[in-house]
Structures are given as C-alpha cells and as structure tokens.
Amino acid sequence: MSSSVLETYIKPFIEGAMNPSPTVLAIGLLFLLVGPIILHLLYTSVTPYTTLPSVLLVGPSGSGKTALVTLFERGPASPDHPEPAPTHTSSSPSSTELSISPSHTYKTDLDSAAATSTKKFLLIDTPGHPKLRSSAVLAQLRSPEASIKVPHSGEKAPLRAVVFLLDASTLSSDDLLPQTASYLYDVLLSLQNRFHSRKGSRAPASVPVLIAANKMDLFTALPASLVKSSLEAELGRIRSARSKGLLDSGVGQDDITEDKDDGWLGGDGSEKFKFEQMMEFDVEVEIIGGNVIGDGPGVDKWWKWLGERV
Ligand SMILES: Nc1nc2c(ncn2[C@@H]2O[C@H](COP(=O)(O)OP(=O)(O)OP(=O)(O)O)[C@@H](O)[C@H]2O)c(=O)[nH]1
Ligand SMILES: [Mg+2]
User: Fold this and answer.
1) How does it sit in the membrane (predicted)?
2) Distance 73 CA to ligand 2 centre (A)
3) Helices 224-248 and 176-196: crossing angle, nearest 10°?
4) Is the pLDDT at 1 greater than 60, yes or no?
C-alpha cells in the first residue's frame, strides 16, 4: 500500500521538480526577479519618512521657531486666512513636511508644492525652554551617523542641516545673550564631537548650521553682523570659563588636549573664538538676519539656504 502511494504520487512529483517544464522555470525566474522590486515598492510606500531629508530647528524659547514653521507651512496671515499667532511654548518636538526648490522663494514653493522640481523635506521643531529641551536631540547630533529621529513616527531620517533661530531684538540683554550662546555652544560642540566620533578614516557627512537672527522687524534688533560678533565674544567667554572649570577640577592641560571629547569649542591654540574655526571640524556656520512677522528682510534668504542644503 505504502509503496503504491510512493509510485503514484511522490515519485512523479519528485521527477517533476527535478526536471521542471519551461513554464515552471519561467514563472520561478520571474518571481525571483520581480519579487524584490515589489517588496521594495511596498516598503517605500508604507514608510515614506525614512528617505526624506530632515532639518532640525532649535533655539531658545520665544525665538519664533513655531511661528516660522507655521509660516512655511501655511503662508503669511491674510484677511482670508487669519492665523492665530502661535504664542504658547512648545512642549514636545514636531515635524512638518515641506516642499522646496533652490531658486524659489518660500511663497512660490508654497503655491506650487505639487511641481516636480520641488524637493520634500522635514522641518523638525523643538521646544526651546531649557526644561523641555531634549538631551536626546544633542546626543543625536553627536552620533557619527547624520540622522535624526522623526517625532511621533520614531523613524530615522537623514539630517541635512541645523537651523538655530534666535531673537535678535532681545539678544543684547544681559541674561539672554549668555543663555542663547550657551545653548548654541552645546549644539556646536555636539556637532564638533561628531567629527571625532567617526569610525575608521571615513569622515561623517557634514551638517551645516544656519544661525537665523529673527525679529529684524523690531527696531531693537541687532543687525546680523553684530549678532555674529556678540555671539563669538560670548562663546569665547563660555569656552574659557568651561576649560578653566576643568583645570580647577584637577584635569591637567595635557589631558584636555588629548581627550578630543573635551568641552573646548573650535580649534586649539586660538585666543578668540570665531565661527570660521568650526570649519576645522567640517561644520559650516552662517548667520543670516530675517523676520517671520512684520516688515523686514523676511524669510526668503533662510529658505534659499535650506533649498541649497536639503
Ligand atoms: N516681532 C516679531 N515677532 C515674532 C517674529 N517671529 C516670531 N515672533 C513672535 O514671537 C513669539 C514666540 O514665537 P514662537 O514661535 O512661539 O516661539 P518658539 O521659538 O516656538 O518658542 P518655544 O516653543 O517656547 O521654544 C510669538 O508671539 C511670535 O508671534 C518676528 O519675526 N517678529
Ligand atoms: Mg515653539
């Protein structure tokens, strides 16, 4: 009985499998070739965020980050679309998908978002209040892979740039300059340490920084050149204070220069801090003035800067 089952069913099946007909062969081959493509298409359509380049928006509370994202997303407030100003403090990071093309102003891009020449990217807004800033964000800037976790979806997106937005109208105040500079110091130092944390000889992809000096519509606002020199002076002060702290705590000068993860921002041996010193670590820093609300230079130069980098 069992041998007849073997003769009638199993033997022909094995013979068939060993000598497949051309049709079976063709179907098998087709499946092998097309299968991965179908899987790839399925995967990329389900998780579109993983491939979108992203830009991280940081800066002190009240500098206008959420107002800037809202402007890029919806355009300026008009009688037809009255926008309530986002005056509340952001409590958690959020991401917004935007379309950009290098030669356009943000308004033309907003009107022609469906055009094929535009590139899509994610702008990630973060809370600026010191208690709400996530240390995870700085840790991600420090890691050699230039990627950032997208809020809510949790997926990783390639990080193309960092925008540090500050309020130029209050920068000259005694409290706000040190506070703003110390946040900027941490951001730049994280990016500098990224350069050292590379594995092997391959340098990590560079992440440029735009210091966007906002609120240029207000008459108290410092011009971009003055924002630059005030920040450089303050960053220099923080730098020597922090290294003095290390020396006082018993860490020798030799230890400091050997340990590349120390708190010294910029190149060794330089008396004054200059943003150009960051180029040594492949961190390009540019300062551009603008304003989200009111009359002034507006946001087009920032938009152009982003368009050239995403
Ligand atoms: N005059 C003027 N006010 C602005 C400008 N940009 C933003 N503001 C105002 O600044 C205030 C703070 O703006 P937000 O966008 O909430 O600030 P934020 O950086 O998101 O602050 P956090 O979420 O706390 O980190 C709001 O009242 C805005 O209307 C500008 O260019 N000029
Ligand atoms: Mg906000």
Assistant:
1) Single-pass membrane protein
2) 14
3) 70
4) no
